[in-house]
Description:
Elements: E1 6-9, E2 16-24, H1 28-33, E3 36-37, E4 47-54, E5 61-70, E6 81-88, H2 90-102, E7 106-107, H3 112-119, H4 125-136, H5 140-150, H6 153-177, H7 181-207, H8 209-217, E8 219-225, H9 231-239, E9 257-263, E10 266-272, H10 282-297, E11 300-306, H11 313-321, E12 327-332, H12 339-347, E13 354-356, H13 365-377, H14 392-413, H15 418-436, H16 442-450
Helix pairs in contact: 4-5, 6-7, 6-15, 7-14, 14-15
The structure holds guanosine-5'-triphosphate and magnesium ion.
Guanosine-5'-triphosphate binds at residues 225, 227-233, 246-248, 250-253, 274-275, 332-333, 335-336, 358-360.
Amino acid sequence: MDSDTITAISTPLGEGGIGIVRLSGKDAFSIVKKVFKTKNKELKSHKLIYGKIVNPEDEKIVDEVLVSFMSAPHTYTRENIVEINCHGGIVPLRKILELCLKQGARMAERGEFTQRAFLNGRIDLTQAEAVMDIIRAKTDAGREIAVSQIEGKLYDKIKDIKEKIVGLLALVEVNLDFPEEDIEEVTVEKIKKSTKEIVAEIEEILETADDGIIFREGLKTTIIGKPNVGKSSLLNALLKEQRAIVTEIPGTTRDILEEVISIRGVPLRVIDTAGIRKTKDVVEKIGVERAEKAVRESDLVLFIVDAKVGIEEEDRTIMEMLKNKKSIFIINKIDLVDSEKVEEIIKKIDERPVIKASFKYGSGLKKLEESILNLVFKGEITPAESILINNSRQKGSLEKAKKNISEALQGIEEEIPLDLITIDLRRGWECLGEITGEALEEGILNKIFSEFCIGK
Ligand SMILES: Nc1nc2c(ncn2[C@@H]2O[C@H](COP(=O)(O)OP(=O)(O)OP(=O)(O)O)[C@@H](O)[C@H]2O)c(=O)[nH]1
Ligand SMILES: [Mg+2]
């Protein structure tokens, strides 16, 4: 356990009513006492105390503040914590941070406060990850899943499965110690049954994992098409604001533009791209390359053609790009043509959902939203309360656990000696420990926490 005292500015840098400098560690109190002047005789724990931060070198007042001293262990990190509430400007915050550093604190790494909460055993890794998920939640459903993880819903479930595996291992031991015929038959049946149950329980959690990941990370959705078909008009219509520049000049959008929207609580990271065409213009060319890259990396593609122009050479190239992608085909500007022309275009495309739209006038949006949800959730959005897992790391470890325990099950069915089966069971147990963080190496843990924000 690190015993030094860390500090950081915990509020976003910018102008705000209040800004907070936070410290955690055994010297947090003594460091702040050197720079904090108050008329209060007693610095009661978990109370806000009014006073001033004063530079000990020149006795000048830095800012008027409210300070809370929080004694271990009932704190976020389980260490002594001090939070200095000053005025929310970059200069006072930096000055106070600097004073704390001069008095012996060390600059905190990203996520280091939460990492200490984890290392000191106050929370497990799923709860630590959920802290960041709340901060970064894109929709209310995403927040709800994170809150249930902070409450320990996933942790409890994993702990429960791990205990069942321990029970299983004990059963196997009994069988190995008393190998008389009759006991063996009974216990082998029992072992088989509970191994099956464990695999089923893991499968059940995995079922909603992909939906959980979408709620946390957002569905990466790229709008693509030739220049001038109405891509930016679609982005604006989804956002209900004039975010992207729309003009009648083909090649208006030069770079990719990303915005988050929510469709019935499902966050979509919608990317507007430069129109795909062969071009000699250097800037536009880079834009086209970025558009192609965005398509490769996206979960869903919205492919637009102009009803008046129909399908051309470039559209076929795009369709080729979309072969193994979830995509929706959109015929836009239907206000400019008659329905026969639209039907003609539909005949020329392969199967995929088709939407007829006129984004300039807001029509086709409802159908498009439905079509997106159908494609991603097969019609039914998983309710947030039934989702336990919401990130790829957790999913990966759970899949490994499932694989090991399924191998154990197969071994039992093939009547492989039971002592060999315990190896797979133990491995499965370890994979579950990766989810809660007990069985992870320091390097991996550091990497996870380095993705947190500063001051958390
Ligand atoms: N009539 C009609 N015009 C539309 C519709 N949607 C977009 N437009 C017009 O088509 C032109 C191009 O629209 P944009 O949204 O800028 O098209 P884009 O695909 O983003 O174009 P680039 O950025 O150049 O690739 C603008 O003049 C829009 O007003 C529509 O549904 N009907
Ligand atoms: Mg555009």
